[in-house]
Design goal:
The structure holds 2 protein chains of 2 kinds. Chain A has 5 domains: 8-139, Alpha-Beta Plaits (2-Layer Sandwich), CATH 3.30.70.100; 143-274 and 389-449 and 717-763, no CATH class; 286-316 and 321-372, Calcium-transporting ATPase, cytoplasmic transduction domain A (Distorted Sandwich), CATH 2.70.150.10; 462-487 and 598-701, 3-Layer(aba) Sandwich (Rossmann fold), CATH 3.40.50.1000; 489-596, Calcium-transporting ATPase, cytoplasmic domain N. Chain A is 49% helix and 18% strand. Chain A is built from 27 helices and 29 strands. Chain A has a 7-stranded mixed sheet with strand order 15-29-28-27-16-25-26, sandwiched between helices. In chain A, a hairpin with a 2-residue loop joins strand 20 and strand 21. The radius of gyration of chain A is 31 Å and the shape is elongated. Chain B is an all-alpha fold. Chain B has a domain at 1-28. Classes of the chains: A alpha+beta, B mainly alpha. Chains A and B meet through helix 4, strand 3, helix 6, helix 7 and helix 27 of A and helix 1 of B.
């Protein structure tokens, strides 16, 4: 395998993969793999033995076990292939299903041949970390929902095809000689195939309408259900009377198109939900519990008991409801309150399971565990948030709802008018109006476009967590970049300046021990440079966003961070851009960071600027460094030495001036800014916390895709507007003709189908031209291209 | 037109069969993941990997 390797370790890994007969991974993958993170305290796979595993494994009987894992690092189909192959080859494994979007594996195995820890170890050897999920997730609601929807859609589709076939025979036969008995037979057959469509496939509309009426609201479902019921029963009456026209074909197709729209919308919603699920990590599977002798060990969440002392690190998720034992901390309880601003908690306050710790680590005494925690409530809240429809869609549905109500009124007017002029034609004219007016086109306009946009964006490595973000992204006028870790990549420069005769190694060791406790890009760069002290007792750790971190290591109070934070007062101007390590006696060492501009940062900024977006930089770093980066990117508006709250204030200031702000960030420092902007993009390598507050997650740190994503978003909005105009145009021209009784039933059915298809085909244009060079991975031959060539 | 009396029941029978087959496929989980299986035909190595030790 002739390929440049970064180190001997990678070469060994690549050779191992090849030895296993899995080299095909390199051909299939469309993205380079994620760099494995140095895991300070890797979860031992033996943790999953016996008791721990009980709640994550489902017993299928006959020695079969099933489990659902959330896998970190599955990025593309190459990963899927590798995981499926390596796990599938294990003895005793019955089936492996990998879903790359949801980052989930569903695995079934025979208990006699293998065990959960063995499987996890095998997966870990291929480089993926798996978190077994609660076994209750196995029969999740979502799977049932999507299967049900697919079945209903198919019954409607088959029914519509058959009904159309019989109807065509009637339409064609009406011109030629079709004897009355054959015509009646075909009508009854139409009734036969349309009945399951109305009674089975259309049930969600009736159920929804009933719910709306029970709540005394007028939803989209009410007029739709009314329309279906009216056309269906009118057709039955006509079939029984043996006169007039029947519309079994139209009603089936009507249901089919509406269900198609719902199905698309559901897929988009599930996709978004999959992403939030993967990011939010609601239940951390392990907690660090303190033994009686003061040492720490990892236990499964299910093992926690009331009264246990548990440690949560910065950016971590509180595992169970508990009382805070540390002095103070900030937590993000967005899941509970919807309030994105972090809440300050003091000693003896209650921390809620599922909330995210913004600074830390902290100590907790567990108060409530398992089903008693507030987590059940949170899960329900998250479910509700995920079910919330994007604004764009709500507006579309409102328009469709209003439209259908008007059509119903128009139908009534038509019936009354014809009753006066020519009573014999009143019924058929009224039904024709109902059939030809097509709310499907309105109802499909948004979901079709949005689904297509989300898929097109996901292909470029841009994952939209909140569908609302598409609209906001298209409309943004200002892009606020964070510098460190976003525009640039940070590494520790090798020359370390030490004071008072401390050795370089000693200084690095102390600094790395402290840096381990934070997820800031700079801290991570320092932590990566040295393993730190093993077995040191680190207490009283506090992280101050934008400033630094302080802790007591083996009884010695240490601070690491900005010079003025670490050493009290700024020692000299020359340390302005350095990271200082200091204790109470004064500075110990000064570290310098080397920053490298991300490869595509320049192109990304230029592309955004070409679209008319104003580019800004806000950084906590020293002015001289920010200025040099800004100059290289031709950015004239930047602010340096700003704390998170100043960044947020800047965002608010811009927004007050009428700007729509896109914030792009990475790292703990950005969370409030990302939450405060109109739309936020988080780099996937960033801390979990940032991902949780980002609306869009950019995979692989490819900044160049932001401009492409914005183009796709703008195109989506344009297509939605076109679709609405088209639906309006069609209906305005067709409905009056139907009301005058000029439209035969076959034309009504045709018009309705064509208007819906027009909307869907128009939506398919999204993302066609959007494939940019940046979105194309540098893989010699892509599988899909090869397939196309073959 | 007598042939209709044979053909129409036959078509309905096929329809019922198709619906049954599809329902079975959905319940079997064949539509749960629409992306990953699309790659399988591209994999031209029939040799499954040796089990990791």
């Amino acid at each position: 395998m002739a390929r440049a390797m970064c180190c001997q370790g990678c070469r060994a890994a690549a050779e191992w993969i090849e030895q296993l007969g899995l080299a095909h991974y390199y051909a299939l993958r469309t993205q380079p793999a994620k760099k494995p993170e140095a895991d300070a305290e890797p979860a031992s796979h033996d943790d999953w033995q016996s008791d721990n595993a009980r709640h994550v494994v489902r017993n299928l009987g006959e020695g079969l076990r099933e489990s659902l894992w959330l896998v970190e690092g599955v990025r593309c189909t190459g990963c899927v292939w590798l995981v499926e192959r390596s796990l599938g080859a294990m003895p005793g494994v019955v089936s492996v299903q990998v879903n790359a979007v949801a980052q989930r594996i569903r695995i079934t195995w025979r208990d006699a041949n293998t065990s959960l820890p063995q499987l996890l170890r095998a997966l870990a050897r291929t480089g993926y970390r798996a978190l077994p999920q609660d076994a209750r997730g196995l029969d999740d609601l979502r799977r049932r929902e999507s299967r049900d929807a697919l079945k209903r859609l198919l019954v409607a589709g088959f029914g519509a095809m058959q009904a159309m076939m019989y109807a065509t025979a009637i339409y064609l036969g009406a011109a030629a000689t079709l004897d009355a008995s054959t015509r009646d037979l075909l009508r009854w057959l139409g009734l036969l195939v349309a009945t399951p469509v109305v009674l089975y496939s259309a049930r969600p509309f009736f159920a929804g309408a009933w719910r709306s009426l029970a709540a005394r609201r007028m939803g989209m479902d009410v007029p739709v259900a009314l329309g279906i019921a009216a056309v269906y029963s009118a057709s039955i009456i006509e079939a029984v009377r043996g006169s007039g026209e029947v519309y079994f074909d139209s009603v089936s197709m009507f249901v089919f198109f509406l269900l198609a729209g719902r199905y698309l919308e559901m897929r988009a919603r599930h996709r978004a939900r999959d992403l939030t699920d993967a990011l939010a990590r609601l239940t951390p599977p392990f907690a660090d519990r303190q033994r009686d002798d003061g040492t720490w060990h990892r236990v499964g969440i299910a093992e926690l008991r009331v009264g246990d002392r548990v440690r949560v690190s910065e950016g971590g998720i509180v595992p169970a409801d508990g009382i805070l034992l540390t002095e103070r901390c900030r937590v993000d309880e967005a899941l509970l309150s919807g309030e994105s601003a972090p809440v300050i908690k003091r000693r003896d306050d209650l921390l809620i399971a599922g909330s995210v710790l913004e600074d830390g680590p902290v100590l907790l005494r567990i108060e409530r565990v398992g089903a008693n925690t507030t987590l059940a409530g949170i899960a329900a809240l998250v479910g509700r948030a995920a079910a919330a429809k994007p604004r764009l869609q709500l507006a579309g549905e409102m328009a469709a709802g209003r439209f259908v109500t008007r059509v119903l009124a128009l139908t009534a007017i038509t019936a009354v008018a014809w009753a006066i002029v020519d009573p014999s034609r009143a019924f058929s004219a009224a039904v024709a109006v109902l059939v030809i007016s097509c709310p499907c086109a309105f109802a499909l306009a948004v979901p079709a476009a949005l689904t297509r946009a989300l898929a097109a964006l996901a292909r470029q490595g841009v994952l939209v967590v909140k569908p609302d973000a598409v609209q906001a992204l298209a409309e943004c006028t200002h892009a606020l970049f964070d510098k460190t870790g976003t525009l640039t990549e940070v590494t520790l420069s090798p020359d370390v300046q030490t004071f008072k005769g401390v050795s370089r190694d000693e200084a690095l060791r102390l600094a790395a021990t402290l840096a381990r406790e934070s997820r800031h890009p700079v801290a991570r760069a320092i932590a990566a440079a040295h393993a730190g002290m093993q077995g040191a007792t680190v207490t009283a750790v506090t992280t101050q966003s934008g400033l630094g971190i302080s802790a007591t290591v083996d009884g010695r109070a240490l601070r690491l961070g900005r010079a003025d934070f670490a050493a009290g007062k700024l020692p000299a101007r020359e340390y302005e851009d350095a990271v200082l390590l200091a204790d109470d006696a004064g500075p110990i060492a000064a570290f310098r960071m080397t920053e490298r501009l991300r490869a595509d940062a320049g192109a990304a900024v230029d592309a955004l600027r070409a679209q008319g977006v104003k580019i800004l930089i806000a950084s906590g770093d020293a002015p001289s460094k920010v200025a040099s980066i800004a100059a290289r990117l031709n950015i004239d508006t930047w602010r340096a030495r700003v704390l998170p709250k100043d960044k947020l204030a800047w965002v608010d200031e811009l927004r007050a001036g009428g700007a729509r702000v896109l914030a792009i960030g990475d790292g703990v420092n950005d969370a409030p800014v990302l939450a405060g902007a109109d739309v936020a993009i988080a780099l996937a390598e960033g801390a979990e916390l940032t991902q949780a507050s980002g609306d869009i997650v950019l995979k692989g740190g490819r900044l160049g895709n932001i401009a492409c994503a914005r183009e796709v978003a703008q195109r989506t909005l344009a297509i939605v507007r076109q679709n609405h105009r088209w639906a309006l145009f069609y209906n305005l021209s067709a409905v009056p003709l139907a009301a005058l009784g000029l439209v035969p039933p076959w034309l009504a059915a045709l018009g309705m189908s064509v208007s819906s298809l027009g909307v869907i085909l128009n939506a398919l244009r999204i993302g066609r031209a959007a494939a940019s060079p940046a979105s194309r991975p540098q893989v010699p031959a892509e599988p899909s291209q090869r397939a196309a060539a073959a | 037109m007598n042939i209709l009396l044979l053909l129409i029941p036959l078509s309905l029978l096929f329809l019922a069969g198709a619906v049954w087959l599809f329902f079975w496929a959905v319940d079997d989980g064949q539509f749960d993941d629409l992306e990953t299986p699309g790659l399988l035909p591209l994999d031209d190595s029939d040799r499954p990997g040796k089990p990791p030790q």
